[in-house]
Amino acid sequence: MTAHTDATTDDLLPEALLDFLPCATPDRWVEAALDNPALLLIDHAQCEKKAASTAMSLMFRYVDRPELLTKMSQLAREELLHFEQVVGLMEERGIDYSHLQASRYAEGLRRHVSRDEPQRLIDTLIVGAFIEARSCERFARLIPRLDEGLARFYRSLVRSEGRHFEDYIGLAERYGGKAAVAARLAVFAEVERELIESEDVMFRFHSGVPEVADV
Length: 215
Known about the structure:
This protein has helices at 7-12, 15-20, 27-35, 37-61, 66-92, 105-110, 119-142, 148-176, 178-197; strands spanning 199-200, 209-210. By secondary structure, the chain is mostly helical. The protein is globular and about 45 Å long.
């Protein structure tokens, strides 16, 4: 698996994260993001809120796993702080926060999560790792094209979201073993690749390639 794109992106991201993702974000998504800055920020805020909710849900479901409780508690606090920061940036730019229909991405990954424990936990952690890693990669793709304030903020997020990716993978391997996790990663990687590289009817932070209108 590899998501190497260009020197700028590679300089911002750790090698392990680039190798983890099955593909790079297509250029058409980057162009759509630059053409829809308000929509990008609104959905980004929504993603941060959902990430905090996911971490807290894991804390309530798996109360007998102290390592998970600690990591998810830290992650939830960070994601809520990021949510507040994104909303603050939106206010500065005159963008109103509103609810958006979610993209197909997260649900597309979760559709392949096992219903049976302990595999359900392992798969859920793997999905979390893909979401965090893809977020980092998209921040890195956008940073060279953004205004100074937003680029600086996204650069700070690359570092924290990168830690979240490592936390999810570390927990998955702790509870499932490296060999078993590697096998499941291969399955989810192909699902993730399809979601990222195929055409998508909506533009969102984690959406696929925007559809091209008929001429």
